[in-house]
Design brief:
Three copies of one chain form a homotrimer. Chain A has about 140 residues and is α+β, with helices and mostly antiparallel strands. Chain A has three helices and eight strands, in the order ββαββααββββ. Chain A has a single domain, classed as YjbQ-like (Jelly Rolls, Sandwich). In chain A, the strands form two sheets. In chain A, strands 1-8-3-5-6 form a five-stranded antiparallel β-sheet, with no helix packed on it. In chain A, strands 2-7-4 form a three-stranded antiparallel β-sheet, sandwiched between helices.
């Protein structure tokens, strides 16, 4: 049984949805030692999040940003938590609707994603800065 | 410490929400050997997803379909990713709002779901075809 | 390799979003024996859920309640599952949009949350009563 864990800082990303599959995999080369297992990627923030989605066409990521901005608008009259700026409370809600962590199976030393799947960083703030991830891989 | 992993193809399901708890459990009978552990079900697609919800009344699943179609409509004017048909971009967004994978505790050789909980396949495409799942169970 | 599992009953909470990080940690002191690992918190219900979000300002939790009530309203004309009351079908949808379980990395005997992260119980029913959680921690 093997357990590997890394904590990394991503470079700052602009508001929107970004593919970070390579950043995650580069951080944990020990994954190749695991035959059957799982990798967890966890983001230590409440105004940015993670999800798995389409890895090819950039317009998919643009449409995510447009749709989430409509579904969870800024300056909604029912928000009370407004002192950190109009992008803050929507960022918290988006983060919980998407995910704080994702889990992916490991098979024969590689992550077992579908052909069209990639890991997204979902940056919900205008100036979120560098985000911290905890990456944990385990298996036998 | 035990690790079991299976990759299965579900039969094609129509657009909507479907109970697949039995399909998952039938695929991994080795689960009965685990005293304390966890099972992960992971879907290798970006336009279908998984969730856990009510396992009894079929109208719950119908209401999920109606509500998600209203919350993430087809042909929204802000979509740029439209070349795969009007059901495609909404399918990607629905998949990320629901889940690409679910994790359930294992206790004494069985999955420890609540009385009313079942595993749903959420098929967001009109003709999604057969979907692939990776099922990983581990524990001691 | 260590596996610990506890099943607990939370006290009944009112409809809304509540911080339960301490309730979870108090239930599983064995977590301190794990150097690298993961904790899963799983809720055995389909009308209450879990998420991770901001742990400081109570207005964030109030805004979650307001926003989810707008995004998934009671008495929507498309609901068919209405015999358990107007708060029931929205509760099911909210539970799947948020999460049935959360996974948090363990590092050096403690959960590795960000500074501002806490575990929320999301009680979607008017009178949900006491909710059951299964807490599983594992690692080496």
């Amino acid at each position: 049984m093997k357990f590997f864990q890394k904590e990394i800082h991503l470079k700052p990303y602009s508001r929107g949805f970004h593919l970070i599959t390579k950043d995650v995999l580069n951080a944990i080369p020990e994954l190749s030692q695991i035959k059957i297992g799982q990798i967890q990627v966890f983001i230590k923030h409440t105004s940015a999040s993670l999800t798995i989605n389409e890895n090819a066409d950039p317009t998919v990521r643009m449409d995510f940003e447009s749709h989430f901005n409509k579904m969870i608008p800024e300056n909604a009259p029912h928000y009370k938590h407004i002192f950190e700026g109009p992008d803050d409370m929507p960022a918290h809600i988006k983060a919980s609707i998407l995910d704080t962590s994702i889990n992916i199976p490991i098979s024969n030393g590689v992550i077992n994603l579908g052909t069209w799947q990639g890991i997204y960083l979902c940056e919900h703030r205008n100036c979120g800065g560098s985000r911290k991830l905890v990456i944990t891989a385990f298996g036998n």
